[in-house]
Amino acid sequence: MTYVVTDACINCKYQDCIEVCPVDCFYEGENTIVINTEECIDCGVCEPECPVDAIKPDTIPNSAFWVELNQKHAESWPNISEKGTPPADADDWANKPDKLSLMSEKPAA
């Protein structure tokens, strides 16, 4: 099993999960973060830290899609090991559903 970041993180990017990850398997994009599913040790400590419930185990429906999406971007985005500042409008995006179409393919600046 591994964990994945879903579209609930898009435009929120609170990054509370970064602080607790013992293996630094998070990677940062312009408006979201992802988990390197090959580095994740399946400890699950990140899941309860996410204030928007964006982190899920790979047992959710459509998990293959999320595993592939997370791994694809983890291979090209920079690793993040310290919590950064969330976007100023993160709270406005926190409860909006179905944000996948808003995901930027760009790495964090």
Explain what this protein looks like in three dimensions.
- The structure is a single chain.
- This protein is α+β, with helices and mostly antiparallel strands.
- The protein has a single domain, classed as 2-Layer Sandwich (Alpha-Beta Plaits).
- The chain has a three-stranded antiparallel beta sheet, with helices on one face. It has a two-stranded antiparallel ribbon with strand order 1-4.
- Strand 2 and strand 3 form a beta hairpin.
- The mean pLDDT is 97.
What features would you highlight for this structure?
109 residues; alpha+beta; Alpha-Beta Plaits; three-stranded antiparallel beta sheet; two-stranded antiparallel sheet; 3 helices; 19% helix; Fd_C; 4 iron, 4 sulfur cluster binding; metal ion binding
What's the order of the H and E elements? EHEEEHEH
Main sheet summary: 3 strands, antiparallel
* Derived structural class: alpha+beta
Tally of domains: 1
Spatially, the strands of the biggest sheet line up as 3-2-5
CATH class value: Alpha Beta
Instruction: Report helical residue fraction.
Output: 10-25%
Instruction: Extract low-pLDDT stretches.
Output: none
**Proportion of strand residues:** 5-15%
What gyration radius follows from the Cα positions, in whole Å?
12 Å
At the third CATH level, what is the topology name? Alpha-Beta Plaits
Tally the beta strands.
Answer: 5
Treating each run of at least 4 consecutive H or I residues as one helix, how many helices? 3
CATH architecture assignment name: 2-Layer Sandwich
Q: Mean pLDDT across all residues, rounded?
A: 97
Shape: globular
Keywords: 3Fe-4S, 4Fe-4S, Electron transport, Iron, Iron-sulfur, Metal-binding, Repeat, Transport
Protein name: Ferredoxin
Function: Ferredoxins are iron-sulfur proteins that transfer electrons in a wide variety of metabolic reactions.
InterPro entries: 4Fe4S_Fe-S-bd, 4Fe4S_Fe_S_CS, 7Fe_ferredoxin, Fd_C, FdxA, RnfB_subfamily
